[in-house]
Amino acid sequence: MRIQALLKRSGKLNDNSITYGDIQVNLATNSTLVDGQEVELLGKEFDLLVYFLQNQNVILPKTQIFDRLWGFDSDTTVSVVEVYISKIRKKLKETKFTSNLQTIRSVGYILKDVD
């Protein structure tokens, strides 16, 4: 709730939606629009996108992302994070998200602010 309050004040969250450049994410319907066209992000892909949008300019280690989205008792490994990042990058290619999501080698990822 604190994150949502901060996002509302900054103008990036408006009635259960987050806007990042040309991407609009509706948290109520779990839908993603790029330039008004719907892009299908399934389950964890959507959750991962929202997690990055809520944590802009914060270095997110792969282990933290894994623990947050898959949980401590998951049967998969941390490498699943890389797989899902790749899927999101393919689906959102040519957007500000893809160009601003930077890989920090041996650490994790950071999503820079939209210019």
How would you describe this protein?
This protein has helices at residues 2-10, 43-54, 62-69, 80-91, 96-100; strands at residues 17-20, 23-26, 31-34, 37-39, 60-61, 101-104, 108-111. The strands form two sheets. Strands 1-2-3-4 form a four-stranded antiparallel sheet, with helices on one face. The chain has a three-stranded antiparallel sheet with strand order 5-7-6. The model has no long low-confidence stretch (mean pLDDT 86). It is 40% helix and 22% strand. Helix 2 (43-54) packs across helix 4.
Describe the structure in brief:
The chain is built from 5 helices and 7 strands. By secondary structure, the chain is of the alpha+beta class. Helix 2 (43-54) crosses helix 4 (80-91).
Name a few traits of the molecule.
single chain; 115 residues; alpha+beta; four-stranded antiparallel β-sheet; 5 helices; 40% helix; globular
Produce the secondary structure layout:
Elements: H1 2-10, E1 17-20, E2 23-26, E3 31-34, E4 37-39, H2 43-54, E5 60-61, H3 62-69, H4 80-91, H5 96-100, E6 101-104, E7 108-111
Antiparallel strand pairs: 1-2, 2-3, 3-4, 5-7, 6-7
Helix pairs in contact: 2-4
Uncertain runs:
none
Mean pLDDT: 86
Radius of gyration: 14 Å
In N-to-C order, the SSE pattern is: HEEEEHEHHHEE
Assembly state here? single chain
